[in-house]
Amino acid sequence: MKNKKSPLKSKPLRNAGQSLDEEIHKSVSENLAIYAFALVMFSYLIIMEWYRWYMQSPPSPIIMTIMVLPFILYALYKLIKEKKKIDLLKQGRDGEKAVGQYLENFREAGMKVHHDIMGDNFNIDHVLISTKGVYLIETKTYSKPLKGKTEIEFDGLDFYYNGVKYNDNIQVQVMAGSTWLKNIIEELTVKKVDVKPVVVFPGWFVKMTRKHDSNIWALNPRNLQTFINNQNEIISKEDVQLISNHIARYIRTM
Q: Are 127 and 232 within one domain?
């Protein structure tokens, strides 16, 4: 109504996995529904034609089947493909939510946590701000084999999943995100702080061999607090609050 307004002064902060939730919703509403509708309609047309043929009505179902069958097969292919995409998105979203809920426990130690910060055509899953640094946390929720070893190794240059090199440019992604976040913090607060890139793999045993120098941590999320606790304090409590306030304000204006 024109003579009323929302009681909220600003938009709420984003939740862990919110970008993936939005992508899932878009995929379901814009893609999955269309192919499902096409599949039902074309199937209905064929059934009706065969029914008319069975009832000895003049139209022949053969022509209609030949015309419509390619569309049905295409819609079925797209449905299966879209379903697989949505399943992967849901797995990624659930991983981000699980890590996000775990990170919420860090608030008890005076740390600040933010989720799903949107950049230019990308998002940062989580940001943790403490007196021991600012951490960009990227969650990778990869499927595990039903049996056998479940180990991820990071040698500072490449990731290996059960001994097999995996090329998905995680390193490039988190380093670029860290640089972007560092610049945003400096722009908003006039504070120059380094941002530590961290990749966490829920449910996996993760080890860093450090064969190559790297600024990236690769961890099971349960080990994150131990790694942070072993760092020196480099940011004052006042600056932790300042940086957190400005990031929260940035998120609300996105």
A: yes
